[in-house]
Write a structure and sequence with these properties.
90 residues, Metal-sensing transcriptional repressor, Metal_Tscrpt_repr_sf, elongated, 0% strand, Methane Monooxygenase Hydroxylase, Chain G, domain 1, mainly alpha, 3 helices, Metal_Tscrpt_repr
Length: 90
């Protein structure tokens, strides 16, 4: 389970985007930009990190959980499918 998952590249891309937004926020603070502008950029940082986290968790569940439990009959899959679905609200 140490090999990169399908969406790790997408997670890294989102985190790099957040890193860029964060650098912008620091520069904005240092340059005395308005609190509204800074808050908007901080919101963008939070959204990028949140999306990266959700993508990572979903990818982990899809890859590792499915690998661990293996094939289940349809009538036994409901709890697993529901668990995977509810994690979208993290």
């Amino acid at each position: 389970m140490n090999e990169p998952h399908q969406h790790h590249e997408a997670v890294a891309k989102r985190l790099k985007r957040a890193q860029g937004h964060l650098k912008t926020v620091v520069a904005m603070i240092e340059n005395g930009r308005s609190c509204l502008d800074i808050a908007q950029q901080l919101h963008a940082v939070e959204k990028a990190i949140g999306q990266a986290k959700r993508t990572l968790i979903q990818d982990h569940l899809d890859h590792c959980l499915e690998e661990t439990i293996g094939a289940l009959p349809r009538d036994q899959r409901a709890p697993i499918d529901e668990f995977k679905e509810i994690t979208k609200y993290l």
